[in-house]
Design goal:
The protein is built from 25 helices and 22 strands. With 678 residues, the chain is of the alpha/beta class. It is elongated, with a radius of gyration of 36 Å.
């Protein structure tokens, strides 16, 4: 035996019949009211046939029009201005229809005022019943919210704030009772949006929160800069209220609902980065239907590149990775998130030339994104030879195999630390750039002009040609690579240089979060330490954009915005954790580490960049990067690694990169005599 239905279930079951009955009652009422009002509640006997005809015909005619117009469907508690406009039009059409029927078939002599009074009464009552239901529902939900969790302020009285407010009022399951809005625009003060007032600006947040018992602030300012978000964050902390935010413009466009995307404020919001606009069709034309190989596929940038590439329907993605565990996780994620895109995991090291050739030869990728590298600056200062073997000779192996197997596009992920390097990591990345530029020149006629980015760069002593490699067979050729032979397909080599990414493996953000979780202190190397930051998805998207823009031999530079002080980043993370810097969590300065700069640079003063068609991507002018004799440099580095001779390695790097300034840590290893010579 089924359990008895509740009152709500019975109402839901008979919802449509109840609406029909209510509207029929309103139509009958409007007819009676029209005659009563027209004849002052005393209808003459000779107009009673007219009344009877109207009572029998008019409600039926109006209900038919309402049914055809869809006015008998829907929930009245959700009624809005467009619904009332449709209701008005429906009443005019219905009155016109019943008037025409009456003039054709009804008793003669109908007073014309009856038609008008009936229309007005029917319109007013049908509208009033719906509006009263909406008002009743709104007040009921307001009482429920007020009795439950959270009196709320919305920070931002623009379009996003109005949308959030409207959605909150329509969704009773949301735990927010909006008592007012906050906006820093003085012209919006005391304005009303959906019946809710703008109570003041951010400076008055603390007093407003105290007066209205506010517990939560929803920040509805998708276009806010990082500086504005930081100021709002501090105001919320000063008021002692919780805070959440809505996403940026790109996510708003992708998802109509804002309240479904309300989330905690993240450190990325404080950067104030504008959304990336990509040439999606151009990227799809390059990637779609092709095999793409990503080295370092389990790393922060490598794994995000795999996700971004999968959105452009490649034939397959080959993930080349040295970490077994990391490769397992990205394979599992890719198969789950992109089941229609084949993901082919390959374990191996880029230092193993044979393994690199096996993977590229087996899968025959059309594109390679080379992200695999050792990137931790202090650790590479302590492991110079490992950095050279991986970052330099590993890049050589992948680039050489790309040429031998006819890969069409090769993209090297470089670093801002390659600019006037003061550490081994940056110096090895600079040499990697030289390698791919030399490979590009070796495939180009020296007199071919590149008028897109700047003057022609002639193939100088830095070019890696077959002849130069053969001449350098001892000791490089057998140890590094056999001589390069160029197949029919020319490989297009480009490099993309950018700064730090938030949340990447080894970055300061995860370390700061763990230190905050442990109760502090948060350790910062120097109060003036600054870095450029961007999010991992943004960096990966711009790498894809740059990959389709180059003709070969370019070094692209991504727009990193303004540098961020590391100590400010630490303070903001403490604030985001609901704590107070220097009170709840102490910040401690530990001193700069080996190889670190106080300021990073994205372009050399002597290396001019020119604009591209994308506002966030620039490129070095074709003659801006002076290349060394890369073959001699590689030979010297190989000999230094084989003999573990630090001085020889530093000499080779300094010879190739005149603006490389070895750190004190490296100079101490070289020895004082050699140091004086440097």
């Amino acid at each position: 035996m089924s359990p008895p239905m509740s009152t709500q279930e019975r109402v839901l079951r008979f919802h449509r019949p109840l609406l029909l009955l209510t509207q029929a009652t309103i139509c009958v009422f409007s007819v009676l009211s029209a005659f009563v009002l027209r004849f002052d509640a005393n209808v003459p006997w000779y107009f009673r046939p007219h009344l009877q005809f109207a009572l029998l015909v008019w409600p039926v005619g109006k209900l038919i029009v309402f049914w055809i117009g869809g006015l008998g469907r829907g929930w009245w508690r959700y009624v809005s201005l467009p619904d009332l406009i449709r209701l008005t039009i429906g009443n005019f059409v219905a009155s016109t229809l019943v008037t025409a029927i009456t003039l054709g078939f009804g008793p003669p002599g109908f007073p014309r005022s009856i038609y008008i009074i009936d229309l007005l009464v029917c319109l007013i009552v049908t509208s009033a019943t719906r509006i009263s239901r909406r008002i009743h529902w709104e007040f009921s939900r307001a009482r429920l919210r007020e009795a439950g969790e959270g009196r709320t302020l919305i920070y931002g009285a623009g379009d996003a704030g109005a949308s959030v407010l409207r959605e909150i009022r329509q969704n009773s399951s949301l735990p927010y009772h909006v008592v007012g809005l906050i906006d820093d625009d003085p012209t919006k003060l005391a304005a009303s949006i959906h019946g809710i007032k703008v109570l003041g600006n951010g400076a008055a947040l603390a007093s407003i929160a105290r007066n209205y018992g506010v517990r939560t602030v929803l920040i509805a300012m998708p276009s806010a800069t990082g500086q504005q978000m930081t100021a709002i964050l501090q105001q919320c902390h000063g008021a002692g209220v919780a805070f959440k935010t809505v996403p940026g413009l790109s996510k708003i466009l992708a998802n109509v609902s804002l309240t479904a995307q309300i989330r905690d404020v993240a450190v990325e919001d404080l950067l104030g980065r504008s959304p990336v606009v990509l040439e999606h069709q151009r990227i799809r034309d390059r990637i779609g239907g092709r095999v793409v190989l990503v080295t370092g596929a389990a790393g922060s940038i490598g794994s995000e590149l795999c996700r971004q590439i999968a959105r452009y329907s490649p034939a397959a993605i080959v993930g080349f990775e040295n970490s077994e565990t990391g490769l397992f996780h990205i394979e599992h994620e890719m198969r789950k998130s992109f089941p229609d895109i084949p993901f082919r995991p390959e374990i191996g090291s880029i230092q193993n030339e044979r393994r690199v050739g096996e993977v590229i030869g087996a899968h025959k990728p059309a594109m390679i994104f080379h992200t695999a590298a050792y990137k931790h600056v202090p650790m590479m200062e302590a492991h110079l030879f490992e950095a050279v073997e991986n970052n330099v000779f590993g890049s050589w192996n992948v680039a050489n195999a790309a040429v031998r197997f006819g890969v069409e596009d090769f993209v090297l992920i470089s670093s801002d630390k390659a600019v006037r390097p003061t550490n081994i990591m940056g110096a090895t990345k600079r040499i990697s750039e030289f390698i791919i530029l030399s490979f590009s020149e070796a495939q180009e006629p020296s007199d071919k002009a590149r008028d897109t980015w700047g003057p022609t760069r002639s193939a100088g002593s830095g070019s890696v040609t077959c002849a130069s490699l053969e001449a350098a067979q001892e000791p490089v050729a057998r140890a590094v690579s056999p001589a390069v032979s160029f197949p029919g397909t020319k490989t297009k080599f480009v490099a993309v240089r950018f700064g730090n990414v938030l949340g990447s493996n080894g970055s300061v953000v995860p370390m700061f979060k763990q230190q905050i979780l442990n109760g502090g202190p948060v350790t910062v190397t120097h109060p003036e330490m600054q870095r450029f930051f961007m999010t991992i998805p943004e960096a990966s998207q711009l790498v894809l954009q740059a990959s389709v823009m180059g003709r070969g031999g370019e070094v692209f530079v991504l727009d990193m915005g303004s540098p961020v002080k590391i100590v400010d980043l630490a303070r903001n993370l403490i604030l985001l954790s609901g704590l107070r810097p220097d009170e709840d969590i102490r910040i401690e300065f530990t001193g700069t580490r080996p190889g670190e700069k106080l300021y990073e640079e994205l372009s050399h003063l002597e290396e001019g960049t020119v604009a591209t068609q994308h506002e966030k991507v620039r490129v070095f002018a074709a003659n801006a990067i002076r290349q060394p004799d890369i073959t001699a440099c590689l030979a010297a580095l190989h000999e230094a690694c084989a003999s573990r001779n630090t001085g020889m390695a530093v000499d080779a790097l300094r010879s190739a990169i005149p603006d490389y300034s070895p750190s004190e840590h490296i100079l101490a290893r070289v020895g004082y005599a050699h140091r004086a010579a440097l």
